[in-house]
Write a structure and sequence with these properties.
With 89 residues, the protein is an alpha/beta fold. Helices cover 40% and strands 15% of the residues. It contains 3 helices and 3 strands, in the order E-H-E-H-E-H. It has a 3-stranded parallel sheet, covered by helices on one side. It starts with 5 loop residues before the first strand and ends with a helix.
Length: 89
């Protein structure tokens, strides 16, 4: 029976210095390129609830994840996300 390969990327740790969310997803893209994945593979990007990423940074990672072919990008809701959503209406 054929089934798609599941490739999960779990982002952990903290960004340091001048690292931006775009740097993170571009690094992930470079690493995933080595796997020689195909269109049938199921790809997922997720991160733990803790961390200091801003809502816009999380949006950058999820949007670029979709461009990489990720079928799912998950970031748990946190206080920073709630604050962003309240501020933007």
């Amino acid at each position: 029976m054929l089934y798609p390969r599941h490739i999960a990327v779990y982002l952990t740790g903290e960004m340091s210095g001048w690292t931006a969310p775009k740097d993170v997803i571009l690094y992930v893209a470079g690493q995933l390129d080595r796997l020689r994945w195909n269109k049938r593979d199921r790809r997922e990007i997720s991160a733990p609830a803790r961390g200091r990423s801003r809502a816009t940074g999380k949006a950058t990672i999820t949007n670029m994840g979709a461009e990489l072919g990720a079928t799912t990008s998950l970031f748990p809701a946190d206080e920073r996300m709630a604050k962003y959503l309240r501020a933007t209406g």
